[in-house]
Hints:
- By secondary structure, this protein is an alpha+beta fold.
- The protein has a 7-stranded antiparallel beta sheet with strand order 4-5-6-9-8-7-11. A two-stranded antiparallel ribbon has the order 1-2.
- The chain has helices at residues 11-27, 39-46, 50-62, 107-113, 144-150, 159-165, 184-190, and strands at residues 66-69, 72-75, 85-89, 96-104, 120-129, 135-143, 172-181, 197-206, 212-221, 240-244, 246-249.
- The chain is globular, with a radius of gyration of 17 Å.
- The two termini are 28 Å apart.
Amino acid sequence: MPMPSPNPRVRAADVRRLRDLLRIAVAGGGRPGGLLPGEDELMVRHAVPRAVVRAALGLLGEEGLLRPGPTGYRIVARPHYPGRAAVTGTGTRLPRWLERTGIAAPDVLAEWLGVPVGAPCLRTECVSATAGGGAVLETHYVTTTAAARLLAVPGTGPFDQQLTEAGLHPVWADTRSGPVPADPDSAALLGVAAGAPLLGAERTLTGGDGRVLAVSVLRADPTGTVTAARDGAGSAQSDSSARTASRESASAGVLSGR
Length: 258
């Protein structure tokens, strides 16, 4: 089944997604000497305009992770991941889905997924509501093989529930989490001020064959509110919960909705 095409109008979301992926690159130390690729290279690798690259780098600079220099942006600090909390939908109500889009995996994402650079993958995004009235923004990246099965099921329920319905059963869920400031797009979607501290989590779901099925970038605020859908997306919401997951068996309850 062919994957949907990306929406070229969504620029604030492009900045958010690029910031999140570059933040992962920063956590890994970047290139020798602690440098990130230059703007031109980032434009090509991530297929985004220069304005998006500069905005994403600017957010990382404001966070104190990068400093501009004569040969590019130098890493001066790395994100702090003190926890293992993963915030995902519980399945008691439907999440508000924002998109399901096919993309070519840039280098950071390709390494995370364990696929070649440029390999096609599926990106899905939704906003869920927590039981206490907070909000969670979920961005999931799915490998090609898993995506083919995922696209065959209705794209309405929580992501982890969709995996189950598609016959995809992760064995391990690895998660790291820590504070991350809200970028403007996350802030608008979660109902918080730009720069407000969020719980940021990055999760890897691995199948029984040792291959990665999907990876997730999660941004949660326990006091936020779910805002109206954009670009014609649905308006359903979902309860969410914070769960601890570090090399735990998915069958033991790491996945949401179980």
